[in-house]
Write a structure and sequence with these properties.
By secondary structure, the protein is α/β, with parallel strands linked by helices. It is built from ten helices and seven strands. α3 crosses α7 and α4 packs across α6. The structure holds S-adenosylmethionine. The site of S-adenosylmethionine (SAM) has 24 residues, from loops.
């Protein structure tokens, strides 16, 4: 563990890596996430190093519905002090990277149903050089090409899906970052079979290998446990890891037919899932875990969380809203504290 008083050109981790832990759960690439956690999950050994980090970290994936632009409104609503933190709908992880950059984390347990999200984080953390190398190769093949050749390259990469074609973890992570940065609107969208299916975007000069951003994110992830898990396993995971606070940013309940964009991970996040999520939050509440949840502002969501603190923040309209309705839209933030 680094001493807080040692000066070093290397950023000092906020907390000891939990990488020595056995995996929370091991799922093959294409299989569904379930609410079971396989095997015992030991507690993370935690070390407190009260020192600000050298360089802020940011999401390395573009994520529609990501919280980056809402962070200035959300962070003041968090509990004070350092957090034993869980984020069960990780996506691009905007909140995690901000909290790490602020030195607010004592530990972090990051989970998502998406095998690609989890794999990309783990590869970035464990072998950033290999990931950078593969992304440079994608950039070398893609950027000099004309529009037709770029599209052909994109669809060739897209069609080599890890559940159809054997590929190692690094290639899979590079595939995700490449597709995320070259697809239409940075939209990571999967069909019901879990196959990424967003079309090619047409950016003149996309940054395919944002090396500084990747290395900063890798340093932040070095201290985190990242695993594939369904949100229904959160109470068990919080108990096993001594989590005291969770931030939940699920696929939003659609407020209209046109805003029904909630199929990030191989299937819609239906109203029944929203209700089960509210039950999960009540279980966390009974277990003494504090939580904050984001969702759309509608009667259905407000009804699910009746009795908890509900307030609103103003968000930029989502990509799928009507082009003529610009400006902001209210979202709810629900808290049990
Ligand atoms: C709104 S996004 C999270 C965005 C993230 N907060 C950010 O700032 O980028 C929702 C995430 O929930 C994940 N997800 C969908 N269904 C899930 C489930 N049943 N359990 C866990 N994660 C799920 C999706 O894969 C997606 O990454």
């Amino acid at each position: 563990m680094s001493s807080p008083n040692v000066r070093s050109s290397q950023p000092i981790p906020q907390f000891a890596s939990t990488r020595a832990l056995p995996p929370l759960r091991v799922l093959d690439g294409g299989g569904p996430a379930t609410n079971r956690v396989t095997g015992p999950v030991p507690r993370a050994g935690l070390h407190i190093v009260p020192q600000p980090v050298a360089e802020p970290a940011q999401p390395f994936l573009k994520w529609v519905g990501g919280k980056r632009r809402l962070l200035d409104q959300l962070v003041p609503l968090l509990p004070t002090g350092r957090l034993r933190y869980a984020e069960p709908f990780l996506g691009g992880g905007a909140m995690f990277f901000r909290l790490w950059s602020l030195g607010r984390l004592e530990s972090a347990l990051l989970t998502d149903a998406s095998a690609d999200v989890v794999n990309a984080c783990n590869v970035l953390r464990d072998d950033v050089d290999a990931l950078v190398g593969r992304l440079r190769a994608h950039a070398h093949a893609y950027l000099p090409a004309d529009a037709d050749a770029r599209a052909a390259y994109f669809y060739a990469v897209r069609d080599r899906h890890p559940s159809l074609v054997p590929m190692d973890a690094v290639e899979r992570a590079a595939r995700m970052v490449f597709l995320n940065r070259t697809c239409f609107n940075g939209l990571w969208r999967e069909n019901r079979r879990g196959l990424f299916n967003a079309p090619h975007g047409r950016y003149d000069a996309p940054t395919l290998c944002p090396e500084d951003r990747l290395r900063a994110a890798a340093r932040a992830l070095d201290a985190a446990t990242v695993a594939r898990a369904d949100f229904r396993s959160l109470p068990n995971l919080c108990r096993a890891h001594g989590v005291t606070f969770a931030y939940l940013d699920p696929p939003y309940h659609p407020v209209s037919v046109t805003s029904a964009f909630n199929a990030y991970s191989g299937g819609a996040f239906a109203a029944t899932a929203q209700a089960e999520l509210a039950d999960t939050c009540r279980a966390l509440d009974r277990a003494g875990v504090r939580w904050m949840l984001s969702n759309s502002d509608c009667d259905f969501v407000r009804g699910l969380y009746r009795g908890f603190d509900i307030r609103t923040v103003q968000a930029a309209r989502a990509v799928n809203c009507k082009g003529d309705r610009r400006g902001t839209v209210a979202e709810v933030v629900v808290r049990n504290y």
